[in-house]
Design a protein that fits this description.
By secondary structure, this protein is α+β, with helices and mostly antiparallel strands. The chain has a domain of 82 residues. Helix content is 16%, strand content 35%. The protein has 1 helix and 5 strands, in the order αβββββ. The protein has a 3-stranded antiparallel beta sheet with strand order 1-2-5, with no helix packed on it. A two-stranded antiparallel ribbon has the order 3-4.
């Protein structure tokens, strides 16, 4: 076996759980709110899906300061909105907004596809 024997099952499981806890602590939902000096446009903001139906959602994020240069990464989350039901994360994506030079336009738009299997 390459690299020596595999660690015992218990140790591997413990390592996996530790990595998962670290990921949730550093990348979890709510850890990266949109700063107040940025604008977000999501179109459409709400929609209904029948089983096996798909919906395209356009997301655009830009800074309010037109002189800003650099890059910022945002997580976009998708939640079903059913009356009387608790909100539950069902998907999403990551959007990187970047402008390297002041003369170039912003590249901060992405398209997400929502899909229903229920």
């Amino acid at each position: 076996m390459k690299g020596g024997p595999a660690p015992p099952h218990g140790r591997r499981l413990q390592e996996s759980r530790a990595r998962w806890q670290q990921a949730k602590a550093t990348q979890g939902y709510g850890r990266f709110p949109v700063p107040p000096d940025w604008t977000v446009q999501i179109t459409p903001q709400t929609f209904g899906l029948a089983p096996n139906q798909e919906q395209t959602v356009d997301v655009s994020i830009e800074p309010k300061d037109p002189g800003f240069t650099g890059a910022k990464t945002f997580n976009v989350h998708v939640f079903p909105a059913q009356e009387g039901e608790p909100r539950q994360l069902v998907g999403g994506g990551t959007l990187s907004a970047a402008k390297r030079l002041r003369k170039l336009p912003w590249h901060s738009k992405t398209t997400l596809n929502a899909f229903s299997t229920a």
